Amino acid sequence: MLRNLKKEIFYPYPPQRVWQVLTNSQVLAAWLMENDFEPRIGHRFRFMCPPLPGLNGSIDCEVIELDEPKRLSYTWQDSMMRQPSIVTWTLKPVDGGTRVQLEHKELRHELVQTPHAASVQESMRHDQVWQGQFMHESTAVAQTLAPNARSVVLPSIPVGIYAALDSVILHSFFNGGWDYRLNEKIPQILVSLVSNN
To answer: Is 124 helix (H, G, I), strand (E, B) or coil?
Structure first.
């Protein structure tokens, strides 16, 4: 899975206008998700995804960098993620508008040897052993299903591997979700903001 996404796009509007799209809670809701965002360092907020069967659609965030109207960073962690990722917006004024860079990257923490870190490492080893055992069992079950002369055997799907994948929500944003919002939704919002003023 992709672990670091970096996109650049040009909008023919001044940085202050684009900044409004990124930091106004009501405008954010129109192109991204319902939220309780406030542009304030340390503010903890939540994006609410449309509900999905069996999934908690909320994304917990915290503003960690704010330099109006140049740079905004916040953490991003939903219930299926073991650790947060970071979303960073950088705005640069250029002739005729604003160049926007979006970077969404996974945080990787190095574990320091403390009693807690040792238990986390042990838990991770246990997860890997369990996954390996599960994969072995699912492969063994698939192999015991002997085909008869008229049946077609499809290759076995390693069921246990999916437990290792990150969040469905994060995956959707890394695989087209951000592109759609940058290229389709934000331009529509920018046009509507100009026409309403």
So the answer is: helix
